[in-house]
Design brief:
Blueprint (H helix, E strand, L loop, with lengths): L5 E4 L4 H18 L6 H8 L8 E7 L13 E8 L8 E6 L8 H14 L7 E5 L3 H9 L2 E13 L16 E5 L6 H11 L11 H8 L9 E6 L5 E10 L8 E9 L8 H15 L4 E7 L3 H9 L3 E11 L3
Parallel strand pairs: 4-5, 10-11
Antiparallel strand pairs: 1-2, 2-3, 3-4, 5-12, 6-11, 6-12, 7-8, 8-9, 9-10
């Protein structure tokens, strides 16, 4: 079957957005991995997304002559975010489980490559969530090489949770929950300082934060802040998350993000906050907790291993070999 790919610039129309979300859910159920990152989903539905930095390539399960509709199922989609004429964006591509091994992924990747060849944008980097065999082969076909590995680790309740160290705070530091309507600006500044070296987390905006706070999973009681007693300044934080159960699988907790400001490094706050968040999730009845960590982050890997986390899966980022 020939696949015709349509290109949408900027936030897609509601019907297309709904089909993208349904496609992502079907792929996540089949693969055990969400095929689109949380930030990509935020960008897809945000009216504030720059149309020049969001490209949506889509193809339908017919002859591809028209865009998705109620009778034309979405066979695959590729979403390119953050790209400009000078700076490479990030690509995520997903094919519906019912239309795999039929050339859909190749058609989508070819359409992206046509934009690159035409000089419309630099060759993007591309995430493979779970790094399945089909993604490895597609990367090889288009001359992409792995440049980053983001591991998923998991801690199960069957592990020796009694071995968790005590969550002991330094003198003059207290732990409290995030306060919606009061802490947003201070936390954004703290997050930017803690992740100044991190291209994704450190660039979070108020719109990004508001979008996450609007999600059903957001719980301020699980958003822990370590603050200085004398002036209330944020020194570190552990934002936890709970993924609802789906497809017969139970709910799972997540060490969503742990950050410590440079001025508070060396105080043991990272470990203390991590343990406090884990205990919060376990007290809520979660049997398993997961997290993402860069494979080359040796200090974090050592900490999580000591806490009982084991390797579960991995996401791999690819870049064009000539880039």
């Amino acid at each position: 079957m020939p696949w015709t790919v349509t290109l949408t610039k900027g936030t897609p129309e509601p019907d297309l957005l709904a089909q993208i979300r349904e496609l992502a859910a079907a792929a996540a159920e089949a693969d055990g991995n969400p095929p689109l990152s949380e930030q990509t989903l935020v960008d897809l539905r945000s009216a504030e997304t720059d149309p020049d930095e969001l490209l949506v390539f889509a193809t339908c399960a017919n002859d591809g002559s028209a865009g998705p509709s109620e009778t034309q199922a979405l066979a695959g989609v590729a979403v390119l975010t953050g790209g400009t004429a000078e700076e490479a964006g990030v690509l995520e591509l997903v094919v519906h489980p019912s239309y795999r091994e039929k050339g859909v992924g190749t058609a989508l990747a070819s359409s992206v490559q046509e934009q690159v060849n035409a000089g419309s944008l630099p060759a993007p980097q591309a995430w493979s969530h779970g790094n399945h065999e089909a993604a490895v082969e597609l990367a090889r076909l288009f001359g992409y090489r792995p440049v980053r590995e983001l591991l998923r680790l998991r801690l199960t309740r069957g592990a020796d949770t009694a071995a968790l160290p005590a969550a002991t705070l330094p003198e003059g530091v207290s732990l409290r929950a995030f306060r919606p309507g009061a802490d947003e600006d201070a936390w954004l500044a703290a997050n930017a300082a803690a992740f100044a070296h991190h291209p994704e987390q450190g660039s979070m905006t108020r719109a990004d934060l508001d979008a996450r706070m609007a999600e059903d999973w957001f719980d301020p009681e699980g958003f822990l802040l370590a603050v200085r007693d004398d002036d209330g300044a944020i020194l570190g934080f552990h934002w936890t998350k709970v993924h609802p159960g789906a497809g017969g699988h139970p709910a799972m907790g997540e060490v969503y993000v742990v950050g410590v400001l440079p001025e508070a490094q060396g105080m043991g706050l990272g470990r203390t906050l991590t343990v406090a968040g884990i205990r919060h999730l376990q007290d809520a009845g979660l049997q398993a907790i997961m997290l993402y960590v860069d494979a080359d982050n040796a200090p974090a890997m050592a900490l999580y291993k000591r806490l009982g986390f084991v390797r579960w899966d991995a996401d791999v980022m690819y870049a064009a070999s000539h880039a």
